[in-house]
Amino acid sequence: MSLLSIRDLVVRFRTHDGTVYAVNGVSFDLDEGETLGLVGESGCGKSVTNLALMRLLPRPAGHIDGGKVVFGGEDLLTLDESEMRELRGKEIAMIFQDPMTSLNPVLTVQEQMVETIQAHRRVSKSEARARTLELLGMVGIPQPEARLKNFPHQFSGGMRQRVMIAMALALEPKLLIADEPTTALDVTIQAQVLELLSRLAAEHGTAVILITHDLGVVAGMTQRINVMYAGYIVEAATTKDLFARPRHPYTVGLLHSIPRLDAQPGEPLIPIEGAPPDLRYAPVGCPFAPRCAWRVDRCWQEMPSLEPIDPGYEVVTTGPQATHRAACWNPPMSGEVVAAHPLRPGFEPAAPPAQVGS
Amino acid sequence: MTDMTPQTVVPAAGVPGQTADVEAGSSSVRPLVEISDLRMFFPITQGILISRHVGDVRAVDGISLSIQRGETVGLVGESGCGKSTVGRTILRLYQPTGGRIVFDGQDITTAGGASLRAVRRRMQMIFQDPYASLNPRMTAEGIVSEPLEIHGVGVKSERHQRVRDLLATVGLDPSYGDRFPHEFSGGQRQRIGVARALALHPDLIVADEPISALDVSIQAQIINLLERLQGEFGLTYLFIAHDLSVVRHISDRIAVMYLGRIVETAGSRELYERPLHPYAVALLSAVPIPDPSVEGRRRRIILTGDVPSPSNPPSGCHFHTRCWLRERLGNPDRCVAEDPALRPMSSGHEVACHFAEEVDGSAEQVQVTGRSPGAGGVAAAAGPAAPAPYAPSGSPPRPRDRH
After folding, report:
1. Does A184 contact B at CB distance below 8 Å?
2. What percent of chain B stands above pLDDT 70?
3. What CATH number is attached to the domain comprising B234?
4. Could you count the other beta carbons within 10 Å of the beta carbon of residue A307?
5. pTM for the full predicted model
6. Nearest chain B CA: its distance from A185 CA (Å)
7. Which residue of A has its CA nearest to B399?
8. Which residues of A touch B397 (CB under 8 A)?
9. Predicted-complex ipTM score
10. Which of A332, B173, B186, B268 has the largest CB neighbor count within 10 A?
């Protein structure tokens, strides 16, 4: 049985501007010790999915409108707040993009780390302090003893993120959710932090969900990837398969639109035209259809489900043999993946239907 | 950092019909921008009533750079290295502490009043955050038209028409002119920022992280727009960014900055195929590549520690506290004692490192560039190995075309 199993998760925000359709039925599994990347641009629902599973959606706007989140055999959505609090930090820990806003600025690092440990473990203050020291050393903070009494603002961005990682791993959680952990950092510091994160996760056997918009980061860090767009998972595959044989037009578009350090000079970028959809409108059909060069009539009406790209096999959702799945009515063929546009003679993207539903 | 011979003379892009009044007859060899030994220090003061000057943040600490007409120069480095300050100082948004800025033959280091206004018209800026850089209470037309009004260009109806043309040029529907910034998406807002920068037919555009705040799927749209406009209007770009992949894509020449200094400058291709400064090598190795097979082979040079404070930079070579090469060479004293100047290594390739020769051909350099050891010479490096399956493999390196 997998460590985490999310089924048909639906999250809505009720705001003054109306309902925001943030997550529209997301399902995925995660095994112990696995590293999964959730990739997508801002607003695609990748962070909201994880806030929902931690039951940390902003209230009162955020609502889980359906689905199940089974972690270690328990449906987290049925737990009460005190049971959830017991679980957060101890079983599932989270690190965020901006360590400055997630650390308490008026407490020293020692105070907040001891507090975290003592909240979940019956240990004396000196034991908790010893553990703190050990953790800071583990994440590579120089002279940890001298740094214990420092406040978060006395650390640099990279060091703060190390403190966050130390805190997240303090209680040896089974699952670590890292939400854009290096986006605020410089590239050389990003390399330090990513290396630390993958080394520690491997040493402790911690499963990791890495949320990022950076395909480069997931390429080196993860075993599997879910690509998200407008609240849906549109493609799921092992990292190797996803980059070798991208099948969803959005994934194909993303790979063509980012300049690569090792690209041939002068190679043009092929952007994805248009902009992501406004999530204040209920999704009709595939949300990527307006930007898609492969769209057919059906795309405007019906969202395809996530199906294996090679039919006929049993679907495996986790591990290195995970089935490559994509949610697309008319996936690009391999030559088209290279060309980034349809090559079928006479193919025209389907025009939007006139006046849908009105 | 004294001799400023132009390294690559980029043929001046013909500027048909544009900006005719000001630089008629200007030489095509003379760089559009030439800065020498530029220094920009921000004072640190203490005390409330009597403020005492206790130090300086040496944001830009003696850099020299020339930008040819029609060229794109990329300025890369980590946050706090002074790259944005260079851009702003060139536009004279700051009064430099020292050094010289020459714009199209005119020394503007201390220019003020009318002469500065006249020059400012010819240089514009595109900012990082399209949410913060547009006035939320002005319509798109008002925003794009403002530079025209400030410089008294045309009458109202002419300006209106010009704004419509500009919006169309940057790929927006001209009828969107009466909308407010919040009605646009991030990418569209950045297009408005680009239209505003184009309004006065500038020669130079300083683009300070113009795509960093945009969604991944939008970034390529803006990069392609900037490239197209450069071809159409013969623009010169100073492209400031921390993302080396983007800078490599758009730039003809790249300057790598570290703690207020330029540590290496080279043609874009040369820099990525033969980086010679230990910092440049480390920077390149740190960039993740969206291809698991490449990532699996690569070994990162993990720089220890953080960038030191620019108010108290290390002695000698600023990079010596984090340098992987210095460690290998047994920590020579020269790095601590002597500040390395930029020295030419090959045509158009300058590096500020006492031991740059040791970098050339080192395992680290080979790792980063994918160049086979002993291949020597840049021409032999035919580019990185193993293009990803989705990349058009086998396509020969093409000259950059801008259409």
Report:
1. no
2. 85
3. 3.40.50.300
4. 13
5. 0.85
6. 9
7. A266
8. 264-266
9. 0.84
10. A332
